[in-house]
Amino acid sequence: MAHGDEVAVLAAAKQLARSSSDIIGPRLRSAILYGSLATGQFVSGHSDIDLLLITDGTLADTEVDALEALVRQIDLAEASGIDLHVVTADVARTPTQAPIMELHVGRYERSSIGVEIERRTQSPDLPTELAMARADGYALIGMEPSNVIEPVPPQWIRERGRHWLTTWQSRIDDAEEAAFMVLTACRIWRFGVEGVHCAKTQAAEWALDRNPSLTAVRQALRQYGAEPAAPLDEDAIAQVLDIALRETTNLPNN
């Protein structure tokens, strides 16, 4: 990403954190930036801003409404969207396989989803978010991730990854989500084999080093880069999902 774009997106993330702090007040224990923007792998126009808020206690209805309005209105700069997750400090300290997510507000400019809101729901995907925030995130406000998030057992992340690989096997005709599925499958695959969290593009390069025949990975990278209209072959998508599922099954210490 160009330096100017990076500065603008990081400024947007910091503004999101500050405005969230204004809404929640002193009960905000930490605002953690994670994902590609935190690791230097942000792709302009394709990557989201990932922000995790850890609070003392639950949110009031007025706070939920204000956070939703904030995500809807804030300038994204060159980001393609926002994923704002809110969890209580108790959940972050004692993660389970399906912890309670206090709030998720997602805004996706390049997707037909638009804005997605989930409040106080059990979330089997939340442990992966917590693990990524702890591993590679850093605090924009408050305490650092390792001081507020306890480690998540890797086998939980692997199990959830295999769930998505299996689910996506029946969705290879979803052209809108094809590149996302393929690149995220590479992330799941790499974590399953090596226990490493990484950005989509890094995971794709890792997968191609491991198996250069993966046409769908190359197609997804083209779509994610300079050719947003580049199609993905359904059989090639199925190949990636099949290999990733096979190589993340029956691993030691799962």
UniProtKB/TrEMBL annotation:
CDD domains reported in the protein's UniProt record: NT_KNTase_like
For whether the record's keyword set contains Iron, the answer is no
Query: Which positions fall inside the Polymerase nucleotidyl transferase domain?
Result: 30-87
Repeat as a keyword of this entry, yes or no, is: no
The GO molecular function terms of this record are: nucleotidyltransferase activity
| Residue ranges occupied by any Adenylyltransferase AadA C-terminal domain in the UniProt entry | 147-233
User: The organism sits in which domain of life?
Assistant: Bacteria
- Keyword annotations from UniProtKB, A to Z: Transferase
InterPro entries hit by this protein: AadA_C, NT_sf, Polymerase_NTP_transf_dom
Indicate what this protein is called per its UniProt record.
Adenylyltransferase AadA C-terminal domain-containing protein
Organism per entry: Micromonospora haikouensis
The upper taxonomy is: Bacteria, Bacillati, Actinomycetota, Actinomycetes, Micromonosporales
